[in-house]
Amino acid sequence: MLYYVKSYKDDSILKILKEGVNSTSEAEEFSLFIWRVVDSIHDDQENEIEIMGSAGILEMLPDLEYEISDYMQSVGFYDVWCRVSKQA
Predict the structure, then answer these.
(1) DSSP assigned state of 54
(2) pLDDT value at 79 more than 90
(3) Which of 81, 62, 61 is nearest to 71 (CA)?
(4) Do 1 and 17 form a contact (C-beta atoms < 8 A)?
(5) Is the pLDDT higher at 13 or at 47?
(6) Considering only CA atoms, which of 73, 71, 47, 70 is closest in space to residue 58?
(7) Helix, strand, coil share of the chain (percent; to 5)
(8) Residue 67 CB neighbours (<10 A)
(9) Pair 44, 57: CB distance under 8 Å
């Protein structure tokens, strides 16, 4: 995640990653960021760009979805994650 946060130069997401999701607006921003990362992962795969020493990290996407869903449920914003995901 930090790789993409740094490449997007997004300080608000870095803050959320450090402090956690604490509001509905942060939950929405974080969810949108995750889907932006998913798009970037697909683009990086297509362009054979190495991330963390690998040119193919698509296989991580199911794990990412599971971890984000679990996290958002634990902090009480699963409904926001689901809404944003349906629109993504």
Answers:
(1) B
(2) yes
(3) 81
(4) yes
(5) 13
(6) 47
(7) 75, 0, 25
(8) 12
(9) yes
